[in-house]
Amino acid sequence: SQKIEQNSEALNIQEGKTATLTCNYTNYSPAYLQWYRQDPGRGPVFLLLIRENEKEKRKERLKVTFDTTLKQSLFHITASQPADSATYLCAPDSGTYKYIFGTGTRLKVLA
Amino acid sequence: DTGVSQNPRHKITKRGQNVTFRCDPISEHNRLYWYRQTLGQGPEFLTYFQNEAQLEKSRLLSDRFSAERPKGSFSTLEIQRTEQGDSAMYLCASSLRAGVISDTQYFGPGTRLTVL
């Protein structure tokens, strides 16, 4: 069955550093992959979408890579700020309309 | 604000009671989804509407759950005879599918259900 793995342990980093979050998937080949941010008690908020023919996508301080050979996406936040603290979810395209989400990685940026 | 809205934001009920949640999608979006999320997990797909047609219902959804989207606008999710295991955040999302373009889903704030 399709499976998505994200670091279940929280990631703590110092303010100003680059945070790198990992999303690994197995048993399917998504045409695209999306990253969402979720704050406690709120719905996920769309951040970035990267397609299989794109190796890298940037938006302000965010960068996403997509390696279809490794079946992995990396999500980077440069010059991290305490306001970036949240849970980040990846959702590879499942080939249908429904998303399959990872469990998310909780990021905490320390001032 | 033209985002996805959900009501109520919080619902506390006693086991055995029925509850109904409402979702108002972004107005031009033709697709609507319901997800359930428990603590420490990602959202889990429950059901999906294309306009007013319910096209898929997850096997996770028991017969106690029903969803409607009359006239392809707002949607309701009803849970009958609630159980403590139904306690979760219920999320609604909508998207606009146009041809083969990937459709990003936009989520509402969720309804937090607590079953006592």
What brief labels describe this structure?
heterodimer; A: 111 residues; mainly beta; five-stranded antiparallel β-sheet; five-stranded mixed β-sheet; 10 strands; globular; B: 116 residues; seven-stranded mixed β-sheet; four-stranded antiparallel β-sheet; 11 strands; 0% helix
Quick description:
With 111 residues, chain A is mostly beta strands.
Rg of chain B, Cα atoms, Å: 14 Å
The shape of chain A is globular
Extended strand count of chain A: 10
Give the strand order, joined by hyphens, for the main sheet of chain A.
1-3-8-7-6
| Arithmetic mean pLDDT of chain A | 91
Spell the H/E element sequence of chain A: EEEEEEEEEE
Largest interface, with Cβ-Cβ < 8 Å?
A: A-B, 25 and 28 residues
Tally of strands of chain B = 11
* Computed Rg of chain A: 13 Å
Total helices of chain A: the number is 0
Q: Could you name the ranges of chain B where pLDDT drops below 50 across 5 or more consecutive residues? A: none
Q: Tell me the series of helices and strands of chain B, N- to C-terminal.
A: EEEEEEEEEEE
SS-based class of chain A:
mainly beta
Low-confidence stretches of chain A: none
Give a short account of the largest sheet of chain A.
5 strands, antiparallel
Mean pLDDT of chain B: 91
What does this structure look like?
The complex is a heterodimer of chains A (111) and B (116). Chain A has 111 residues and is mainly β. Chain A is 0% helix and 53% strand. Chain A contains no helices and ten strands. Chain A has strands at 3-6, 11-14, 19-26, 32-38, 45-51, 56-59, 62-67, 72-77, 86-92, 105-110. In chain A, the strands form two sheets. In chain A, strands 1-3-8-7-6 form a five-stranded antiparallel sheet, with no helix packed on it. In chain A, strand 6 and strand 7 form a beta hairpin. The radius of gyration of chain A is 13 Å and the shape is globular. The termini of chain A are far apart. The model of chain A has no long low-confidence stretch (mean pLDDT 91). Chain B is mostly beta strands and 116 residues long. In chain B, 0% of the residues lie in helices and 48% in strands. Chain B has no helices and eleven strands. Chain B has strands at 5-7, 10-13, 19-24, 31-37, 44-50, 53-57, 65-68, 75-79, 88-95, 106-107, 111-115. In chain B, the strands form two sheets. In chain B, strands 2, 4, 5, 6, 9, 10 and 11 form a seven-stranded mixed sheet that branches. In chain B, strands 1-3-8-7 form a four-stranded antiparallel sheet, with no helix packed on it. The radius of gyration of chain B is 14 Å and the shape is globular. Chains A and B meet through strand 4 and strand 5 of A and strand 5, strand 9 and strand 10 of B.
